[in-house]
Amino acid sequence: MTIIIILLIFLAKVDANLSHGMSLNSHAACPENEKQALVNFKKGLIDEANPLASWDPHHHPDCCRWFGVVCDNMTGHILSLNLSVPPLDEDNLKSRLTSKLEGKINPCLSNLKHLRFLDLSGNQFEGLLPYQLGNLSNLQYLNLGDNVLYVQSLQWLSGIPLLKHFDLSPMDLSRASNWLQLINTVLPSLEELHLSLVNLYQDLHC
Ligand SMILES: *[C@@H]1O[C@H](CO)[C@@H](O)[C@H](O)[C@H]1NC(C)=O
Ligand SMILES: *[C@@H]1O[C@H](CO)[C@@H](O)[C@H](O)[C@H]1NC(C)=O
Ligand SMILES: *[C@@H]1O[C@H](CO)[C@@H](O)[C@H](O)[C@H]1NC(C)=O
Ligand SMILES: *[C@@H]1O[C@H](CO)[C@@H](O)[C@H](O)[C@H]1NC(C)=O
């Protein structure tokens, strides 16, 4: 009887140590709606070199382990999405040409409500930038530079008051009439801004 009790206590301790160790080494899995947002985002993309191979909910259920994704260790919420392709140089010419993502930015990304860093620079994202990104109210860093995107308005930026770094270059801002006023008034935290001035004044004629 005594032996059994000692054995039970021993097993309980092993178990406690195991679960303690587990909680140190792993983190909460990402929430289902955030995973779904990434899956929908991927559906709209041409991913020739397959950099998003790990974005497969059947083989890798925890999207915190997907390429480019960083989650909060405790809550599992996605804090950072970085799919940036580094700037061109001779060494990475080949990899850059094959690893770019092409396609439209799905408005579903706005479901990543806890996102602080979004870096999609250096790809071939094209078309109208979804104004729903204005729902990413925790965003501090937004880099969409070096894509083929344009905006109709920058009104949606007013939903991102914590934004410190904002890169849209080179982007066709010709349809964004109120951009300068907005940037001055709605982005009090902004420390860095990268904009291409190309096309801004295309309505001016002599
Ligand atoms: C559990 O961990 C403690 C230190 O964290 C260690 O002293 C103890 O021997 C461990 N117990 C077992 C059963 O592994
Ligand atoms: C999560 O934990 C790792 C170590 O396991 C640490 O390096 C990292 O900074 C933590 N990240 C956050 C967001 O707390
Ligand atoms: C994203 O990753 C690239 C390297 O792949 C790095 O240069 C860049 O600073 C990262 N962006 C953020 C916001 O961490
Ligand atoms: C932002 O989120 C709110 C509440 O979650 C929702 O009602 C609204 O439609 C969203 N707006 C955009 C532009 O996605």
From TrEMBL:
Highest taxon, organism lineage: Eukaryota
Secretion signal span: 1-16
UniProt-annotated location(s): Membrane
Lipid bilayer topology: Single-pass type I membrane protein
Predominant cellular place of this UniProt entry's protein: membrane
The keyword Transport belongs to this UniProt entry's keyword annotation: no
Signal is among the record's keywords: yes
Keyword annotations: Glycoprotein, Kinase, Leucine-rich repeat, Membrane, Receptor, Repeat, Signal, Transferase, Transmembrane, Transmembrane helix
Example of a GO cellular component annotation carried by this entry: membrane
Gene Ontology molecular function, alphabetical: kinase activity
Gene3D superfamilies according to UniProt: Ribonuclease Inhibitor
Pfam family of the protein (one): LRRNT_2
Annotated Leucine-rich repeat-containing N-terminal plant-type domain residues: 32-72
Protein's name in the database: LRR receptor-like serine/threonine-protein kinase GSO2
Organism: Gossypium australe
Organism placement in taxonomy: Eukaryota, Viridiplantae, Streptophyta, Embryophyta, Tracheophyta
